[in-house]
């Protein structure tokens, strides 16, 4: 499953796996893919350095990358306290009333929220990049828009490729103009932040828009047959995220959440602003329903919404409050029906890819005879 891009990065399979879990990212790289560690949850530089040290020891010398979030319209220069002060009191009341209605207890005394998303603030993302500069990452990805020009230049000076996610051809063209090296065409089916266009339509549009820049297909991909389809549409690889959430190496800290993912069908997700302030596909829950009701206060813009709900999310996860318990995940969740190791997932992906290629070759052979 080699392409020009995978050869350039020195990986056997053109499978790029995004994950917030170092053990999963390292396992992806060891399996012959390209693990990409999500940095958004790291609020302390020392924590990111600790996990990058761990990856250095557990990737077997295989290449890996880092994903940061530096959204357009970010509160540049603002402190966390200054941003917190912008949150309306009515929104705080709405959150507390929703938690009370579902009987969610407070966090134990002295226990801080473990779900902070200050990584979406530029000064935190820049501190993450400072840490990453001490490690041999091969790819820097940005999940929301093109990184600032100085960040792109800094990466290029170190020989690091820069990738950015796009939900439309116009978005992809802006990435190309900004000097991005790899465009991830992320379709509507994907988990997390997504646009309005499905992967089957989006991938060839982006390939045509930015060629010869390499494009990775993303969104709703969780089988080798789908990988083959993405490559047939012109992509030089695939970007997979949701499929790793139920691997044995993943650390969701909640058996109840893992069980919900394993039981969910492809129709059990929704694009909602409830978690971050931007449309993000996630499990549909009483939490997303409440925020999306017409009579609700409406989600705040990023990063306010994420800061607003941080403690609430930690409380829901801590006490495993079933009706409210959710996570970002794509429509591929319907195929995630059992816990498997990363290597087992890789084996299934490669076997499915080979089956698809053989099938197409047989069809092509018959048509050419």
Structure in words:
The chain has 369 residues and is α/β, with parallel strands linked by helices. It contains 14 helices and eleven strands. The protein has helices spanning 4-9, 22-30, 45-58, 80-84, 89-101, 122-132, 149-157, 169-177, 199-210, 224-232, 255-263, 286-292, 304-318, 342-368, and strands spanning 15-19, 34-38, 64-68, 139-142, 161-166, 182-186, 192-193, 215-218, 238-240, 269-272, 280-283. The chain has an eight-stranded parallel beta barrel, surrounded by six helices. Strands 7-11-10 form a three-stranded antiparallel β-sheet, covered by helices on one side. The radius of gyration is 20 Å and the shape is globular.
Tag the structure with descriptive keywords.
single chain; 369 residues; alpha/beta; 8-stranded parallel beta barrel; 3-stranded antiparallel sheet; 11 strands; 42% helix; 13% strand; globular
């Amino acid at each position: 499953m080699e392409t020009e891009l995978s050869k350039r990065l020195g990986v056997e399979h053109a499978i790029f796996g995004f994950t917030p879990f170092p053990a999963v990212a390292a396992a992806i790289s060891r399996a012959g893919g390209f693990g990409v560690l999500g940095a958004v949850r790291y609020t302390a530089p020392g924590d990111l350095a600790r996990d990058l040290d761990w990856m250095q020891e557990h990737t077997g010398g295989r290449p890996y990358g880092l994903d940061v979030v530096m959204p357009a319209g970010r509160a540049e220069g603002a402190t966390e306290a200054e941003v917190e002060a912008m949150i309306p009191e009515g929104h705080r009341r709405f959150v507390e009333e929703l938690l009370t209605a579902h009987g969610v207890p407070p966090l134990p005394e002295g226990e801080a929220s473990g779900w902070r998303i200050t990584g979406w603030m530029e000064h935190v993302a820049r501190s993450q990049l400072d840490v990453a500069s001490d490690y041999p990452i091969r790819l820097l990805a940005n999940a929301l828009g093109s990184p600032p020009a100085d960040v792109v230049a800094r990466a290029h000076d170190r020989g690091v490729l820069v990738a950015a996610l796009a939900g439309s051809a116009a978005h992809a063209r802006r990435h190309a103009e900004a000097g991005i090296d790899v465009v991830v065409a992320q379709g509507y089916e994907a988990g997390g932040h997504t646009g309005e266009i499905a992967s089957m339509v989006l991938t060839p549009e982006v390939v045509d828009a930015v060629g010869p820049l390499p494009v990775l297909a993303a969104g709703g991909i969780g089988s080798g047959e789908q990988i083959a389809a993405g490559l047939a549409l012109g992509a030089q690889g695939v970007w997979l995220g949701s499929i790793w959430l139920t691997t044995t190496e993943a650390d969701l800290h909640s058996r109840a959440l893992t069980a919900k993912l394993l039981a969910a069908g492809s129709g059990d997700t929704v694009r909602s602003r409830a978690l971050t302030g931007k449309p993000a596909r996630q499990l549909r829950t009483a939490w997303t329903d409440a925020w999306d009701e017409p009579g609700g206060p409406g989600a705040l813009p990023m990063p306010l919404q994420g800061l607003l709900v941080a403690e609430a999310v930690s409380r829901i996860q801590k006490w495993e409050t079933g009706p409210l318990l959710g996570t970002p995940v794509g429509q591929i969740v319907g195929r995630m029906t059992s816990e498997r190791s990363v290597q087992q997932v890789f084996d299934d992906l490669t076997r499915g890819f080979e089956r698809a290629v053989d099938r197409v070759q047989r069809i092509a052979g018959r048509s050419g005879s």
